[in-house]
Amino acid sequence: MKNIQIITRQFCLITGVAVAGAIVNAKIAWGLTISLDNNAPTNGIYSYSLTLDAGESINLGDPLVFRNLAGVTNATASNPYELGIGFEADTADFSGSELTTANSGSLVLNSVVQITSDAGVGNVNYEIFYSDTNGNPSFISDIILGPATTNSTPVPFEFAPGLGLICVAGWLTASKISQNM
Fold this sequence. Notes:
Blueprint: H1 2-25, E1 33-36, E2 45-52, E3 57-58, E4 63-67, E5 72-77, E6 81-87, E7 92-96, E8 100-101, E9 107-117, E10 121-131, E11 137-147, H2 161-180
Antiparallel strand pairs: 1-2, 2-9, 3-8, 4-7, 4-10, 5-9, 6-7, 10-11
Helix pairs in contact: 1-2
């Protein structure tokens, strides 16, 4: 009977750790999305489109910044963006040029930002400010495909802290059960 109680407690502990790990590692679902057109550059031009959900907006002056780029030789934009501070070999800075709101349903803004580079495709960082469906200022900082250096070492998988906790809890549980038997 005692072994069943120990196993039940350990099962509850492992389940709790697993749920906590899933919550910690869950990605937040943003309404606004940014994507590299065709998932690849065309003639060295990386073109990006935005999708706003209903009620979201890009405001005058809202920044969109790409970082950790490689070999940038030009950057251009079309409404609702314009070239902000400018661009360097490793950054491109854009700024909202007019108020654009998705009034009902999603609004797709095709090829609003273009970055020219002869670098290969890799992960780059971007940061974008916009207004959410409640009119509150919102911010996204994430990774997207873009012109990047190719000499970085790829990571074969992402280590999830929750997974590590589950492994440790499982090992401790197995050790405890084997000691009680």
